[in-house]
Amino acid sequence: MQELLPVTAQLDEGALSIGGVAADVLAAEHGTPLVVYCEETIRAQARAYAAAAPGALIVYGTKAFANVAILRVLAEEGVGADVSTLGELAFAGAAGIPGDRILFHGNNKSDDELAAAAVAGVTVVLDAPDEPERAVAAGVRRVLVRLTPGVEAQTHQAIRTAHDESKFGLPPERALSVIADALALGLDVAGVHFHVGSQLARVDESLLAVERLLEFCERASSELDWQPDVLDIGGGLGVRYTHEEAVPEIDEFVTPLVAALPRDVQVILEPGRSLVGRAGVTLYRVGVVKESGGITYVAVDGGMSDNPRPQLYGARYEALLANRADELADGVYRIAGKHCESGDVLIQAAELPRPARGDLLAVPATGAYTLAMGSTYNGVPRPAVVLVRDGSARVIRRREPVGDLLRYEDG
Fold first, then answer.
1. Under a CB-based contact definition with an 8 Å cutoff, are residues 273 and 239 in contact?
2. CA dihedral sign of residues 378, 379, 382, 384
3. Which residue, among 278, 297, 276, has the nearest Cα to 287 in the 3D structure?
4. Is the CA virtual torsion 402, 405, 409, 411 positive or negative?
5. Residue 217 a catalytic site member
6. In this structure, are residues 56 and 267 in contact, taking their beta carbons and an 8 Å threshold?
7. Fold identical between 2-31+279-406 and 39-273?
8. Strand 331-336 to 360-364 pairing
């Protein structure tokens, strides 16, 4: 389990601690469900990217979890932001990230988004044939063009982004046309971007995409007399959610990609999940434990409202009892959420010592695309988030009160 937990996680006499703070103390003080982020793990991941790609601009895929405090931690490590909405741009701005370290993506950017990008001085990634003209009208100056390299990543179909039928990017012929249009309109076309997909467990498809990117750049040089100053090769490196999963280390994934690129270009990388995924652990309080059709259900006080990935992607997790972590497993249990959905199951088969009401269940590797994709389904407010480091914890997102659910109701 240690390799799934944050780097500061420790088990002391059966009790889990993260960042030097005991999980049961965190739960008692802040309630459950509670998402706990380890600051040291986030910083270690950012430094690993910097070491693997010297001189590259690393931008955090903000959609993994948009949070001002975490963006500030990353900014202290030299990391910028990859945003795709007005809201994400607002998070990056509130964290003090300068415009020259922000990329604005999106397959359907609104006029308001383009205007806000222009005011913030960020680089816009063109993703549609009509965007050069719209970008100029909005006052945008610097752009990249998103190429669809026609690569099928080995990951869930919902998070593949570079195949021929992707809603993102432009096929080579169209991308060349958009570059030509953008240049004619006076835009600073700095370079080309691609993104293969998310939760990647090998580098092969990304290397193929780099090969096709370089072929495209040769065409652009020949046909348009244009060469990129910037090559953005996206992100997508996965994290381990279970013991059976294997993903490359950051240097194993990044080094061959950077080595395949020309030395005279600015390289941009866009990691999201791999920066914050392992850093997060969600704590739940165990409630009902009961048998049904040969299955022992263990119900917790959260579920699909704070982590919808099992329902969306069939995502798998492991768990431990944070207050009884030194006990041997005596069975296999199905971890269910509290929502009125039969499909509200977090973990189909968790090996644990028999849980009891009041136990504290910890689910590792929940730092990315969990609470970020959460909701208030069933009228359940979103949980609090704390950041831990060196024996102290601070709230970086308050628990939503029930009253807030009615804040926008009228009549």
1. yes
2. negative
3. 297
4. negative
5. no
6. yes
7. no
8. unpaired
Residue 356, amino acid? A
Mean pLDDT of 76-82: 98
Which residues, listed in sequence order, are joined to residue 380 by a DSSP beta bridge? Answer: none
Compute CA 164 distance to the chain's CA centroid, rounded to the nearest angstrom.
23
DSSP summary character for residue 160: B
CATH superfamily of 2-31+279-406: Lyase, Ornithine Decarboxylase; Chain A, domain 1 (2.40.37.10)
For residue 50, with 0-12 CB atoms within 10 Å meaning exposed, 13-18 middle and 19 or more buried, which class applies?
A: middle
Please list, residue by residue across 142-156, b when 16 or more beta carbons sit within 10 angstroms of its beta carbon and e when fewer do: bbbbbbbbbbebebe
Amino acid 269 reads L
Options 3.30.200.20, 2.40.110.10, 3.30.479.30, 3.20.20.10; CATH of 39-273: 3.20.20.10
Domain ranges of the chain: 2-31+279-406, 39-273
pTM: 0.94
* Active-site position among 328, 340, 410, 411: 340
DSSP state, 263? T
Give dist(CA 374, CA 390) in Å, integer.
29
DSSP character for 355? P
Q: What is the pLDDT of residues 105-149, one digit of tens each?
A: 999 999 999 999 999 999 999 999 999 999 999 999 999 999 998
Neighbours of 80 (CB within 10 A): 25
- How many other C-beta atoms are found inside a 10 Å radius of the C-beta of residue 191? 23
Longest dimension (CA), the chain: 70
Which residue matches tokens 């090996």? 351
Q: Tokens 């024996």 appear where?
A: 391
Give the bridge partners for 105, in sequence order: none
Query: pLDDT per residue over 142-195, tens digit each?
Result: 999 999 987 654 444 544 454 556 677 899 999 999 999 999 999 999 999 999
* Residues contacting 215, CB < 8 A, separation 6+: none
CA distance 66 to 385: 12
